[in-house]
Amino acid sequence: MNCPECGARNHQCKTRFDEFLVLEFTDAGYGAVHHLTVAAYMVQHSSKLTREGWLFERDLLREFLAENKSPAYIRKQNKDVVDSGKRTFKIKSKTGVPVINKTTWKKTILDVRSENSEVYCEGISAWARSVLEEAEAIEIERG
Ligand SMILES: [Zn+2]
Fold first, then answer.
1. How confident is the model at residue 142 (pLDDT cuts 50, 70, 90)?
2. Ligand 1 centre from 83 Cα, in Å?
3. Which residue from 5, 7, 97, 98 has the highest number of Cβ atoms inside 10 Å of its Cβ?
4. Confidence band (pLDDT; 50, 70, 90) for 84?
């Protein structure tokens, strides 16, 4: 069975995501794109998120890719919001109901090759850009 959310064959996306996270945590060359891996995966798998959480992850992708903000800058920005109690929404959902109904994407995490960190970082970036481009076209109401 293919993944009902990103369309990856045999539902291999979760396994691949877990393998990539291990790579990223053990090798800094791979870890350089960790922020993109997580945000792109989350945007494609909206059942893990609340509606506000999905919008938050899409905004993150946009900030990384379109506005070129660094992960450190965004971490600080988000931390300030959380610390000041300004973030009033939950990101993760336990209902398992997808926020968006898109089930086919041009690229999935399975398109990313990982034989060396250079190829890997390029692959993750290309996948993340493709996800953002398609996610930008999804209309969803802000709460
Ligand atoms: Zn998937």
1. low
2. 32
3. 5
4. confident
Ligand 1 geometric centre to CA of 3 (Å) = 5
Distance 86 CA to ligand 1 centre (A): 32
Report how far residue 74's alpha carbon sits from residue 141's, in angstroms, rounded to the nearest whole number. 23
Q: What is the pTM of this model?
A: 0.91
Range of the structural domain that residue 82 is part of: 9-136
What confidence tens digit (pLDDT) does each residue in 19-51 have?
Answer: 999 999 999 999 999 999 999 999 999 999 999
| Distance from C-alpha of 88 to C-alpha of 26, rounded to nearest angstrom | 34
| Residue 45, phi then psi, degrees to nearest 5 | -120, 75
Q: In sequence order, which residues have a C-beta less than 8 Å from that of residue 35 and are 6 or more positions away?
A: 60, 64, 71, 74
4 inside domain = no
Cα 130 to ligand 1 centre (Å): 15
Q: CA-to-CA distance for 43 and 143, rounded, in angstroms?
A: 17
| Ligand 1 center from residue 1 Cα (angstroms) | 11
CA of 4 to the centre of ligand 1 (A): 7
Question: What is the count of structural domains for the chain?
Answer: 1
Residue 3 lies in a domain: no
